[in-house]
Amino acid sequence: MSDVNKSRRVFLRTAALSVAAVPLARIATHVPAAHAEKPKAEDGHALDYVNDATTSEHARYQEGSKCSNCAFWSGEESGGWGGCRHPQFSDVLVNANGWCNTWVPGG
Ligand code: SF4
């Protein structure tokens, strides 16, 4: 095999691999929106929500009630923050020690 043919073969193989790598790189870096972490709820997000249940001055608040023992709590996702199944909180994470006026025993 001549040096020209060998160089051409190496060039074509490298070019083909480079073209194939682009879509793979896109797949590897793509993070589906469903898996992106939701923002954390702030005090007053909805339904008199507070991140620290003990600070609530709401008439319905009962000592010991908090998101992590509420029927709407769907479990911790990271660092004390987790999901709430109530529609008012579908777009945020709530604090395990948070509370809102819709709290119901469960969790
Ligand atoms: Fe927390 Fe329950 Fe209110 Fe959701 S419904 S924010 S889990 S107290």
Keywords for this structure?
alpha+beta, 25% helix, 3-stranded antiparallel β-sheet, 3 strands, rod-shaped, 107 residues, High-Potential Iron-Sulfur Protein, Chain A, 1 helix, binds iron/sulfur cluster
Structural summary, described in words:
- With 107 residues, the chain is an alpha+beta fold.
- The chain folds into two domains: 1-30; 34-107, High-Potential Iron-Sulfur Protein, Chain A, CATH 4.10.490.
- The protein has one helix and three strands, in the order H-E-E-E.
- The protein has one helix at residues 3-29, and strands at 73-78, 81-84, 94-95.
- Strands 1-2-3 form a three-stranded antiparallel sheet, with no helix packed on it.
- A hairpin with a 2-residue loop joins strand 1 (73-78) and strand 2.
- Bound molecules: iron/sulfur cluster.
Order of helices and strands: HEEE
Q: Averaged pLDDT, please? A: 82
The rough form would be described as: rod-shaped
How many DSSP H or I helices?
1
Count of beta strands: 3
User: Share of helix among residues?
Assistant: 25-40%
**Total count of domains:** 2
CATH topology of the largest domain: High-Potential Iron-Sulfur Protein, Chain A
Determine the strand fraction and express it as a percent band.
5-15%
In CATH, the homologous superfamily of the largest domain goes by the name: High potential iron-sulphur protein
Widest sheet, order of strands: 1-2-3
The name of the CATH architecture of the largest domain is Irregular
In CATH, what is the class of the largest domain? Few Secondary Structures
Sheet having the most strands: 3 strands, antiparallel
Q: Structural class per helix/strand content?
A: alpha+beta
CA distance, first residue to last residue: 73 Å
The radius of gyration over CA amounts to 26 Å
